[in-house]
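Protocol step 4 of 6: structure prediction from sequence.
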Amino acid sequence: MILHSVILLSAFAYAAYGNEIKPTKSEEFADEGFSVKLSCNYSSADTLHWYRQYPGSAPEFIVLISDGAKQVQVSNVDSRFTAKVTKNKGNHVDLEISSASISDSALYYCAMEPTVTGNTRTQHKILTHNTASTSHISNLHICYR
């Protein structure tokens, strides 16, 4: 039996101070064991972040890219995660997960400064009601069918 992962980008585009970040597609598909790339377009940012959040937990830092991709700070979450900024055909930031597995099922956030607060109650409200916030957040949810 082949397991497939479905990545749902049920995100909202958020704009403030002239900056905007949003996912590039509404969903992605990946087979277990293969790589999957999550992407977000952004208008302008000095610092970009990726976070992962499991149900009932605070967002977990994955990677920070700053100063025009000259400085990358990666967490010790998982060595299968890599991030890249591309600026040649518009600005976008990618998070690639190599060898996708069931444990990768979570919400994934691409964000720019200012970013998440760690308050899961507030973030949950943002995600379910698409309310305005000072955070610039898009979310991705990975599940398997």
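Step 5 (inspection) to follow. The two ends are 11 Å apart (CA to CA).
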